């Protein structure tokens, strides 16, 4: 099976990062104007950019794992390549956060007992169960993805391809049941791996559809209709229940969000390559922002803080433009001067792509 490259998905990755950046800036912005007040209200939608990251990652990782399932170095190549992509920037930022940021904010250094969780990708536990911790809060999503990367390759390697859809259904069911339990126990469902893993599983389902040849243009109208039928009720539900704390909404909201992004990705992947949507997502600006999106996501809270601390500008929009551009500059410098040398080392850990088709096995 040949693992094709979708340039459009770099644009999707850029949008996911921009959504989160928009959310983190405007969620607390307030200058008394109606415009900023409106932006702060709609900024909450930017929080779902993390869900988009999850669905997209689930798709991309699953299609790679399925394609390389017969490689002799299946596990070593996958995990080493993931380490080279994720770990260097992750730990660089932790160093900045724990040993540079205190000088900027003139605060005390965090105790090791509170740092510990973040060094080992365990921050979801103290954030969920209210244990003492100190670290970059937005790193919870990176921990969720790393945990998924730990067990998902093992499942895909040892189960028959025809059972992948069933395993995905089980993962979704487990996540829903855990959210139900957590909500009734008054635990947070937002940060915990096993209450968010169904979003990654929804992305994995797109990889199954690709294997079954169900991402062709003939399916485009079905995905579009599904999204439109879901989008309006979802927006209405969000507006009606936002901040209400209704328990059932806390259980099912991630399903609605992930299904929406599932439909959007299926629309993109099944639309004609020369469609306006795909041409837009392939434009140079979005492609570039998608390339450096990991850095955008990692650095933006630190840059926002630096900009607010050292720039005496009171205009909200000038602050947003300045902090956004500075984040892009820093993410770009990081990508080419720090991340790229590690990415080039991936060539030493390649795996062979299976030549036999898995489609017949998958649909048995």
Automatic annotation (TrEMBL):
It holds the Pfam family Acyl_transf_3. Residues 8-333 form the Acyltransferase domain. InterPro entries: Acyl_transf_3_dom, Acyltransferase_3. One of its GO terms (cellular component) is membrane. This is Peptidoglycan/LPS O-acetylase OafA/YrhL. GO terms for molecular function: acyltransferase activity, transferring groups other than amino-acyl groups. It comes from the Bacteria. GO terms for biological process: polysaccharide biosynthetic process. The chain crosses the membrane at residues 12-29, 49-66, 87-105, 166-184, 223-240, 252-271, 292-310, 316-338. Keywords: Membrane, Transmembrane, Transmembrane helix.
